[in-house]
């Protein structure tokens, strides 16, 4: 498989069961100008049975958040089943409007911020 910025070629790689399809999704996230074309492929990676492809889907979602400042509901729903504190959690919080983010991501970052503020004051 070669790396491509064509969503249809990434779909074909999913259909063939290419072992490096997750890397292709990351490449697509970094090189395609339209988040609406990227996010369905990120969703496919996030729902993969292969843990490495799911991890690569998380990385691709982080890139979409950083470069396009957006996310779709399907990706958020799939991300919720991933372990917290991953690359996508942080980039979504940093680059996507907070009003578009779900409560579980708010809760995670609010708790982290309070912990940081609390322990930071005790160290001084």
Give the count of helical stretches.
7
Order of helices and strands: HHHHHHH
Radius of gyration: 16 Å
Oligomer: single chain
Protein name: HEAT repeat domain-containing protein
Organism: Streptomyces tateyamensis
List keywords for this structure.
single chain; HEAT repeat domain-containing protein; about 120 residues; 7 helices
Account of the 3D structure:
The protein has 124 residues and is mainly α. The protein has one domain. The chain contains seven helices and no strands. The chain has helices at residues 7-16, 21-31, 35-46, 51-68, 73-79, 87-95, 103-123. Helix 3 packs parallel to helix 5 (73-79) and helix 4 (51-68) runs parallel beside helix 6 (87-95). It is elongated, with a radius of gyration of 16 Å. The chain starts with 6 loop residues before the first helix and ends with a helix. This is HEAT repeat domain-containing protein. It comes from Streptomyces tateyamensis.
């Amino acid at each position: 498989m070669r790396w491509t910025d064509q969503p249809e070629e990434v779909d074909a790689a999913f259909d063939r069961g290419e072992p490096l399809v997750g890397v292709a999704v990351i490449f697509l996230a970094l090189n395609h100008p339209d988040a609406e074309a990227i996010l369905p492929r990120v969703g496919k990676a996030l729902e993969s049975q292969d843990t490495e492809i799911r991890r690569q889907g998380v990385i691709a979602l982080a890139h979409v958040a950083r470069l396009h400042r957006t996310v779709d509901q399907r990706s958020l729903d799939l991300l919720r089943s991933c372990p917290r504190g991953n690359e996508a959690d942080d980039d979504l919080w940093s680059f996507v409007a907070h009003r578009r983010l779900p409560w579980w991501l708010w809760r995670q970052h609010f708790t982290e911020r309070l912990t940081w503020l609390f322990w930071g004051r005790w160290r001084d």
